[in-house]
Design goal:
This protein has 4 helices and 7 strands, in the order E-E-E-E-E-H-E-H-E-H-H. The protein is of the alpha/beta class and about 220 residues long. It folds into 2 domains: about 5-95, no CATH class; about 105-215, Transcription Regulator spoIIAA (2-Layer Sandwich), CATH 3.30.750.210. The strands form 2 sheets. The protein has a 4-stranded antiparallel β-sheet, with no helix packed on it. It has a 3-stranded parallel β-sheet with strand order 5-6-7, with helices on one face. Strand 6 (about 160-165), helix 2 (about 175-185) and strand 7 (about 185-190) form a beta-alpha-beta unit. The chain is globular. The two termini are about 15 Å apart.
Length: about 220
């Protein structure tokens, strides 16, 4: 939990312990940085405190009611109406506003392998079967790092990076790539678009993923 000087309580509420599912007291709060993030902290007498981010930008959280240029109006959508009365999808929704905001990359998707370990009759990615050896077609770690850095240099911070394919967990340097992404300050979150085959069948794979998840 952050010091009181670095957070602002939005409301007290009731939630559930993520471990035992018991009804527990909870607090919704936001950080004081920019962009401010919104968190939910639950306190269980048996399992202790658990905190989860529920909004990566407080402007899109309905309780953020500060400066109209930096907060949401009525409902959950940011308002083009400076009074905050008429909820619309974004401040640029009003056609009378001539200037379009320049935004950072909210979501970047990168295909790290072209092969898959399934043979579905319909494949959105049109990925050939090839889980190992010469049949596995993957992009080098250096190439992926270069492409991701290029996005950050051109567009600024990546809020959410999706690793896709093919089946991304087949990449021969999959965990090395995850470690690099974790240490890259220009990336907030990483999402792996996986079919779950390796997680379900390979001993230790889920444990390795869990180690990186616990690191944040």
């Amino acid at each position: 939990m952050l010091p009181a000087s670095l957070k602002e309580t939005l409301k007290k509420t009731t939630s559930r312990c993520p471990t035992c599912q018991a009804s527990v007291p909870a607090e919704v709060w936001k950080t004081t940085g920019t962009p401010a993030k919104v968190y939910l902290t639950r306190n269980c007498t048996e399992h202790g405190e658990a905190t989860a981010c529920i909004a990566s930008d407080a402007r899109f959280y309905w309780l953020a009611k500060g400066d109209p240029s930096n907060a949401c109006g009525a409902g959950c959508a940011c308002s083009a109406d400076p009074t905050g009365i008429n909820g619309t999808l974004g401040r640029n929704a009003n056609a009378a506003v001539p200037e379009v905001e320049v935004l950072s990359t909210c979501l970047a998707l990168i295909e790290i392998v072209d092969s898959c370990n399934l043979a579905c009759p319909t494949c959105f990615a049109d990925s050939p079967v090839g889980a190992a050896g010469d049949r596995l077609k993957s992009h080098s770690l250096e190439s992926l790092q270069s492409r991701i850095r290029g996005v950050i240099e051109r567009k600024g911070k990546i809020e959410l990076l999706q690793l896709s394919g093919g089946e991304p967990t087949l990449h021969p340097q999959f965990f090395e790539l995850l470690d690099w992404i974790h240490d890259e300050p220009g990336i907030d979150y990483c999402l792996v678009n996986t079919n779950g085959v390796r997680i379900a069948k390979e001993e230790g794979f889920l444990e390795e993923l869990g180690k990186r998840g616990r690191r944040g």
